[in-house]
Amino acid sequence: MLRYIAFADELSAWFGKVFAWGILIMAFGVGYEVVARYLFRAPTPWAFDLSYMLYGTIFMMAGAYTLSRDGHVRGDFIYRLWKPRTQARLELVLYFIFFFPGITALVFSGWKYAARSWRYLEVSSNSPAGVPIFQFKAVIVAAGILLFLQGVAQVFRCILCIRTGEWPKQAEDVEELEKVLLETKSLDVLKTEDEGFLPSRELDAGREPRDRDT
């Protein structure tokens, strides 16, 4: 189980990080549209299509990566008070009642939706540019498969937690500053010796700051 968890986490992370570069493409595309529209009075016919297709692709392909890092929103005002075994039992049940049926429906429905789009090489009807969008419909199926594979890994995590009483360690990743501050229970991580900031020990002691050159 641990090997499969590591495999699924690595696979989800690879796809998530690769498709994250789409944010830069989307930013450049939207930025170009703003400059062209408001400075040169020459709006592009493709910028809108580019923005919503790329945003949808990034959103879908990052789902499995977010799940592997336990980053999805959870109403945890009660959940977080429970013991790990209780959390794992609840999650295990919910995965089979809601997650897997939903993801399976997404894959099969997305397959029909994408296949129909590929048959007639669908283009966007939202702009005169006729931007091809059939290839983006395949993202629905790909994202569903990735989520299903990662869901199996999450089920294995639940089983291991029920056995051991502890959640398996998550893969290390970038942490939000707010979370770091909450875990350290201090603002010391923000204090530096740059000019204008005082060392915390000197502030606590009420002493005058020392000259850095002495």
From TrEMBL:
Localization terms from the record: Cell inner membrane
Instruction: Give UniProt keywords alphabetically.
Output: Cell inner membrane, Cell membrane, Membrane, Transmembrane, Transmembrane helix, Transport
Could you tell me which InterPro entries the record lists for this protein? DctQ, TRAP_DctQ
Gene Ontology MF terms in the entry: transmembrane transporter activity
**Domain of life of the native organism:** Bacteria
Looking at the record, the residues that make up the Tripartite ATP-independent periplasmic transporters DctQ component domain are: 26-159
Claim: Cell membrane is one of the keywords in the record:
yes
Give the bilayer topology.
Multi-pass membrane protein
**Do the record's keywords include Membrane?**
yes
One CC-aspect GO term:
plasma membrane
What parts of the sequence cross the membrane? 12-32, 52-71, 92-114, 134-160
Q: What does this protein do?
A: Part of the tripartite ATP-independent periplasmic (TRAP) transport system.
Q: What quaternary structure, including any partners, is listed in this protein's UniProt entry? A: The complex comprises the extracytoplasmic solute receptor protein and the two transmembrane proteins.
Membership in a protein family: Belongs to the TRAP transporter small permease family.
The entry's protein name is TRAP transporter small permease protein
Which species does the entry assign this protein to? Rhizobium sophoriradicis
